[in-house]
Amino acid sequence: MLTTEQWQAGKNIISTLKHNGFEAVFVGGAVRDYVCHKEANDIDIATSALPNEVKIIFKRTADVGLAHGTVLVIEKQVPIEVTTFRTDGEYTDHRRPTDVKFVRSLEEDLKRRDFTMNALAMTDSFQIIDLFNGQQDLHNKIIRTVGMPIDRFKEDALRMLRAIRFTAQLGFSIEKNTFEAIKSCAKDISYVSIERITAELEKMWLSTNLNIGLNALTKSNLVNYLPGNFRFTHEKWAQLGNPQDVLVCWTFLCLLHDKPNALELARVFKLSNDLKQQINQLVKATEIRYERQYTIDDLYQFDESYLIHAEMLSRIVCSDIELMPIEGIVKRKRSLQIQSIRDLVISGDDLMRWYNKPGGPWLKVALTKIEHAVLHEKVVNDSTEIKEWIMNEFNSEV
Asked: Which of 149, 230, 143, 235 is nearest to 186 (CA)?
């Protein structure tokens, strides 16, 4: 586990910093994962060296967050973030400190972190530095803030949602005082940008304990202050289980709404255009299954993955539908003569040559007719057969 390129690159960077008279340690989630005997490749280093000192020591660096003391060091083609020990200034907007102060003390740096399990550090010889009993909390599967929980959440309200997300990712419970502080400060989540909220929700969508996270989201009152009128609290979530799929979870959240609207969901949570289109497709495929079984045209319209996900989602959301066996859907989908118009053995150039006329609106009409005929097995997907069919059946129209 500790022989990956990232860990080796991290060890080399720490060794170099120490050789130059600075303190340097591994920090963050990678240390937590190491203590939990999990693989971790997202390696972060904290150091007493100032950013400009880091840039002098290493030949290959990139500025990724100098205002917060972070320099990206490239060690043998492996990028590692190296951040100067720091303390945070006053938080005035529940989101970010007004400034940061670089310090030479590791303890001061660890004191500003959110949870005890994330306030662990580790030397390059893999000795754990644990100033806040983080290892004990990990052993007991407890999420607890460093210091007073209300102070931590008033500093950065996103930490409340991070705590919820960790319950879903790790299957941990939130320590009583920490949880009560989340309930008290829940409304402050409205200060957090929707992009940061969306990022935390998507990490939760990928978790292995989704319902633990959703239950904590509900009981903490945070669910009441999330944007939009979406049903994060619904008994059908338990039936969904742990798909560990961002598209499926966003779509399910959309489908639980009285009037599913993928475009509105994407607008509220500022989802990418690509993801918006995927959700819209999956919503359409699922709503078709509410009404009827898939036709040949449905099977042709949607990718196989949409058809499979839609069948699964429709069974949960609309429990009285007539089931279609997944293997049957896949078999019928794959048995189609073509999966898209690109699979036709002829092209527009062929049609223009056969009819000896330039392109125009007629060309799209003819290709669409051929596509439909091949799909419905009125003609074989063979150039000779298609030419004879189109010339005989639709010559006058074309």
From this structure: 149
Quick one: how far is CA 14 from the chain centroid?
Answer: 31
pLDDT at 68 (0 to 100): 85
How far CA 208 is from CA of 136, 235, 241, 283, 311, in Å, comes to: 23, 18, 9, 24, 22
Determine how many CB atoms are found less than 10 A away from the CB of residue 111: 15
pLDDT given at position 319: 82
* 197 touches 157 (CB < 8 A): no
pLDDT tens digits, residue range 187-217?
Answer: 999 999 999 999 999 999 999 999 999 999 9
CB 340 within 8 A of CB 325: no
Enter the DSSP assignment of 318.
Answer: S
Q: How far apart are CA 336 and CA 372, in angstroms?
A: 12
Contact (Cβ atoms closer than 8 angstroms) between residue 126 and residue 112: no
Segment 231-257, tens digit of pLDDT: 999 999 999 999 999 999 999 999 999
Contacts of 318 (CB under 8 A, 6+ apart): 289, 290
DSSP 292: S
pTM of the predicted protein model: 0.89
| Contact (CB, 8 A) for 239 and 316 | yes
Paired residues of 61 in beta bridges: 73
Per-residue pLDDT tens digits for 335-374: 999 999 999 999 999 999 999 989 899 999 999 999 999 9
For 258, the token pair is: 């009285």
Tell me how far apart the alpha carbons of residues 235 and 249 are, in angstroms, rounded to a whole number: 14
The alpha helices in 58-133, defined as continuous H runs, are 106-111
207 Cβ contact list (under 8 Å, min separation 6): 165, 168, 169, 213, 242, 244
Rounded Cα distance between 178 and 162, Å, is 12
Quickly count: other Cβ atoms within 10 Å of residue 349's Cβ: 10
347: tokens are 């092209």
Distance, in Å, from the CA atom of 104 to the CA atom of 47, rounded to the nearest integer, reads 8
Q: Are 185 and 160 in contact (CB under 8 A)?
A: yes
Write down all domains in the chain, each with its CATH number in brackets.
1-133 (3.30.460.10), 141-227 (1.10.110.30), 228-336 (1.20.58), 341-393 (1.10.246.80)
Residue keyed to tokens 């990028």: 79
